[in-house]
């Protein structure tokens, strides 16, 4: 009787191992599908962000051009000029957001000068050497 129970226990253990192996395989497939779906949602989010930045820049340019034409009476020329400027700004914003163009570094904006010391006339290398 002890051998019979041992045999059935070993059989049940083998069946349990087989069922667990099948379950692990299906869980891996579900996790991979969820990872692909998350990557797809992330891609859609980036696409919506980039497109909205571009469209907003073009609309702002067109609106500023329209207002200039309306108040200055310059005809369609303000609208045309600012629409083109808005298009250019939109392309630049999209390229910056996509990482294709680096944003300007704060030091580059200041042209190498610290605020409040713009007229000193001394170079950074001279300050380091103590001259």
Model description:
It is a single chain. The chain has 131 residues and is mainly alpha-helical. It has helices at 2-72, 77-98, 106-109, 124-129. α1 (2-72) packs antiparallel against α2 (77-98). It is rod-shaped and about 100 Å long. The model has no long low-confidence stretch (mean pLDDT 79).
In short:
By secondary structure, the chain is mainly alpha-helical. 79% of the residues lie in helices and 0% in strands.
Comma- or semicolon-separated keywords:
131 residues; mainly alpha; 79% helix; rod-shaped
Taken as a percent bin, the fraction of beta residues is: under 5%
Shape: rod-shaped
Mean pLDDT: 79
Helices and strands, in order, run as HHHH
Helix content: over 70%
Radius of gyration: 33 Å
Structural class: mainly alpha
Describe the secondary structure blueprint for this structure.
Elements: H1 2-72, H2 77-98, H3 106-109, H4 124-129
Helix pairs in contact: 1-2
């Amino acid at each position: 009787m002890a051998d019979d129970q041992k045999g059935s226990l070993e059989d049940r253990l083998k069946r349990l191992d087989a069922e667990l192996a099948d379950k692990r395989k299906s869980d891996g497939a579900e996790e991979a599908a969820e990872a692909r779906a998350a990557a797809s949602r992330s891609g859609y989010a980036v696409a919506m962000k980039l497109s909205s930045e571009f469209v907003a820049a073009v609309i702002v340019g067109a609106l500023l051009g329209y207002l200039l034409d309306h108040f200055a009476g310059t005809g369609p020329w303000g609208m045309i000029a600012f629409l083109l400027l808005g298009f250019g700004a939109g392309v630049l914003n999209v390229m910056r957001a996509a990482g294709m163009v680096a944003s300007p570094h704060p030091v580059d904006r200041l042209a190498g000068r610290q605020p409040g010391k713009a007229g000193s006339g001394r170079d950074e290398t001279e300050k380091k050497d103590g001259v």
